[in-house]
């Protein structure tokens, strides 16, 4: 039986986060964005509401809700601004959920619990200057020395690099082994040898933090290795299954911002004696946004439903991420178009939506990576580990 309704708890969560964005982000975001300012009190308030660990079990300090609750939080937050959803994506989707899946009990107690409570912040450091889409080519090195590893290297484009307490860092213990040498470590930002700095000159997400993480002879105790040596690529890819889900859910919120702003303007603005919403070419853009919004939302909730069953969902998450982010980018472009010259200025929020939406089609797997993945699944070049779930008679246990 298919059920498309939200539970009463999910509805309550949706209205709470919607109100949060409306009161705590939207009135200030234009100014913060212009000043390149990340308002940390917003993150602290999210923590107070239990939203920094919404789908982490209660025994580990979270709210114990499901994946679609996480999607709701991301969507409603991005309705406010991409910066705050990105913070939740890297903290919860890429870092905390990964510790939940792969961490030891001691790692969960030390790092996951305070992160789920929002007392400490997490980030995720995979990308390097010469290793973005080709994540298997990272060069940051980890050399075992007694009871610790010594890490050297540099990570780029790391969201929340300058604010995170704990960074999930990927390094290689054997560069010749390519992805089979990659190993994951929890690195505390305050440790000797760790430096972070902001990256300037970004097109969008001016209200958020993006930085470089430099590791110089950073000594990481063996107990901070996540998984085994050489398991890091799988860990990174499974983390991205969760991170991409949060980006897709955020993109749904961004598309809704574009649609709401465009609908409002289409009623307000008059040309040729009628409101512009009466013109068919404007209607076409609005209808396309609605089509994309509904389609993206269904794909996100389907991926969330699969995650709730605990089955591998790489294919469905990739499709949701690809679709929802392309839709957000196209919707933002059309939203600017509908606003005409005003859309081209920061008098209206749609120019910010357009700049922010470009990040979505680039980070956590570019559009091109997802296109290739989908083609490879269809052509049978990439194994769909959970194909049976789509067949009649499939059950979560099956
Ligand atoms: N879960 C568990 N294991 C997985 C997995 C998953 N989701 N995906 C792959 N693996 C395993 C595979 O089973 C395979 O294991 P074996 O070697 O034992 O067989 C291994 O990992 C290699 O997998 P693939 O063969 O799929 O690897 P590939 O080389 O074909 O992958 C790729 C290529 C899909 C392009 C991949 O490199 C990729 O997704 N690249 C994009 C990287 C990316 O998204 N970066 C974003 C950076 S994070 C970011 O942007 C953060 C931020 O701050 C916003």
Reported for the largest beta sheet, the result is: 4 strands, mixed
Helix/sheet category: alpha+beta
**Spans of at least 5 consecutive residues with low confidence:** 390-394
CATH architectural label of the largest domain: Up-down Bundle
The sequence of SSEs as H and E is HHHHHEEEEEEEEHEEHHHH
CATH top level assignment of the largest domain: Mainly Alpha
Regarding quaternary structure, what we see is single chain
The average pLDDT score comes to 95
C-alpha Rg (nearest Å): 21 Å
Anisotropy-based shape? globular
> How many beta-strand runs?
10
Biggest sheet, spatial arrangement of strands: 1-4-5-8
Question: Remind me, CATH topology of the largest domain?
Answer: Butyryl-CoA Dehydrogenase, subunit A, domain 3
Helix percentage range: 40-55%
Instruction: Tally the structural domains.
Output: 3
Number of helices: 10
Bound molecules: acetoacetyl-coenzyme A
What is the CATH superfamily classification of the largest domain?
A: Butyryl-CoA Dehydrogenase, subunit A, domain 3
């Amino acid at each position: 039986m298919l059920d498309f309704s939200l539970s009463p708890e999910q509805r309550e969560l949706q209205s709470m986060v919607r109100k949060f964005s409306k009161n705590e982000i939207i009135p200030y975001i234009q100014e913060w964005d212009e000043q390149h300012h990340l308002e940390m009190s917003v993150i602290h308030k999210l923590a107070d509401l239990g939203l920094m660990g919404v789908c982490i079990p209660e025994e580990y300090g979270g709210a114990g809700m499901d994946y679609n609750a996480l999607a709701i939080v991301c969507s409603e937050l991005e309705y406010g601004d991409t910066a705050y959803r990105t913070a939740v994506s890297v903290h919860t989707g890429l870092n905390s959920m990964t510790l939940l899946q792969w961490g030891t009990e001691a790692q969960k107690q030390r790092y996951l619990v305070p992160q789920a409570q929002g007392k400490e912040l997490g980030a995720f450091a995979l990308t390097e200057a010469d290793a973005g889409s080709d994540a298997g080519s990272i060069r940051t090195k980890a050399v075992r020395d007694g009871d610790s590893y010594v890490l050297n290297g540099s990570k780029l484009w790391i969201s929340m690099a300058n604010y995170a307490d704990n960074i999930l860092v990927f390094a290689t213990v054997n560069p010749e082994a390519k992805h089979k040498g990659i190993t994951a470590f929890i690195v505390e930002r305050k440790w000797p040898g760790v430096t972070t700095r902001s990256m300037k000159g970004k097109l969008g997400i001016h209200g958020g933090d993006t930085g470089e993480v430099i590791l110089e002879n950073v000594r990481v105790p063996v107990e901070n290795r996540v998984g085994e040596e050489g398991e890091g690529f799988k860990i990174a890819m499974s983390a991205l299954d969760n991170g991409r889900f949060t980006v897709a859910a955020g993109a749904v919120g961004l598309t809704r911002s574009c649609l709401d702003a465009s609908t409002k303007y289409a009623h307000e603005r008059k040309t040729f004696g009628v409101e512009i919403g009466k013109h068919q070419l404007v209607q076409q853009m609005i209808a396309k946004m609605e089509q994309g919004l509904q389609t993206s939302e269904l794909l996100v909730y389907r991926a969330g439903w699969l995650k709730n069953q605990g089955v591998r969902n790489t294919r469905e998450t990739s499709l949701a991420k690809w679709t929802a982010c392309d839709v957000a980018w196209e919707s933002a472009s059309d939203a600017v178009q509908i606003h005409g010259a005003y859309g081209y200025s920061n008098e209206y929020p749609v120019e910010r939506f357009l700049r922010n939406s470009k990040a979505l089609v680039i980070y956590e797997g570019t559009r091109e990576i997802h296109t290739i993945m989908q083609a490879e699944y269809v052509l049978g070049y990439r194994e769909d580990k959970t194909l049976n779930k789509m067949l009649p008679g499939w059950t979560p246990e099956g």
